[in-house]
């Protein structure tokens, strides 16, 4: 209710507010005036905008209705601008999770937002998030930290005696770093929750919910705190990046395996940049031995050699790209990815200093978006190259967080490729799927002793 004193015989005045002049109504020249108060608009006499006056003689007959439409459209546009946001690449977009580093973009044409969903939103779509507003389960978090400290060698790295120094680093130094950066702590607890879900299937739903909740929080905090690499946060960013990649492979995906690989390509495309930015400082800190170890040491006690015939198959893929019909841009993209895959194969066969598990996971190093689009479109040549990458990825298959990945992707590729092109993936299929089937059989079954 307006408690202002009643107006007594006011008249038009050249000193009236701009809003009243624009509407051609009398103004009481108060600050703010009664008309602006009644219509809930900012008054120019009280610091509001000085809008231009509209001359009735220059307005066409339909100007009133069109002005109303314009004001309505402008109001709706402003509302759209306030609700349309784009977030950084690895921001979560799940209900109840604040998105980091939001950027306002005016939605002038009222078109739907075109930004792609976060890879984690896609990969974790089948896992329930906690109800917004629920108190965090701090007791479970303590259990997860206890689980991590007691099972580090199974969660992060190898079990062989040669890896004792690396295990000690992950067990002692990573928690210290995590206490200094909460995004790293959330990533550590989330990854530990996934490992516990792996060994305790009866508690898997609860643990996976906790894992994804921790990762959502980690991504938000990382965007708030870890944008610029410094000597103080280099170790935390290094550990966080590593945990995020392992997490992405460990979580059961909610999309077909081929599409999940595309999301993983999008996720790790910035990992090399982060590692390059922090490499010098990390090499001077507690994680220096992790950087120094090569692939051969990382694979101690495991099958490190690739199946025979991969180099022969890779060389024939050049012929495949030239003989099969495809768009020139698609052929050029596949050619670049194939060249990088050949280089990765050479590095694995003849390990170079500094080659690590990340060298395999962070493929392709160049912009993965065009190649990912080819896979999304199910371009046969791109799927065939992906099948050969699965053979290299299969080297890591004995680790719990990636076990079965390459086999699932290959089965999806088999079901997608036309019959006429199945011969191009015979070698990857026999190298990965037949090996998996033989490993699943008992010795007696392999010898045909059981009926």
From TrEMBL:
The keyword DNA-binding does not apply. Residues 44-117 are annotated as: Disordered. InterPro entries: Sterol_Uptake_Regulator (IPR053157), Zn2-C6_fun-type_DNA-bd_sf (IPR036864), Zn2Cys6_DnaBD (IPR001138). Gene3D superfamilies: Zn(2)-C6 fungal-type DNA-binding domain. SMART domains: GAL4. Residues 61-101, 108-117 have a biased composition (Polar residues). CDD domains: GAL4. Residues 16-45 form the Zn(2)-C6 fungal-type domain. It comes from the Eukaryota. One of its GO terms (molecular function) is zinc ion binding. Keywords: Nucleus. Pfam families: Zn_clus. SUPFAM superfamilies: Zn2/Cys6 DNA-binding domain. This is Zn(2)-C6 fungal-type domain-containing protein. It comes from Meristemomyces frigidus.
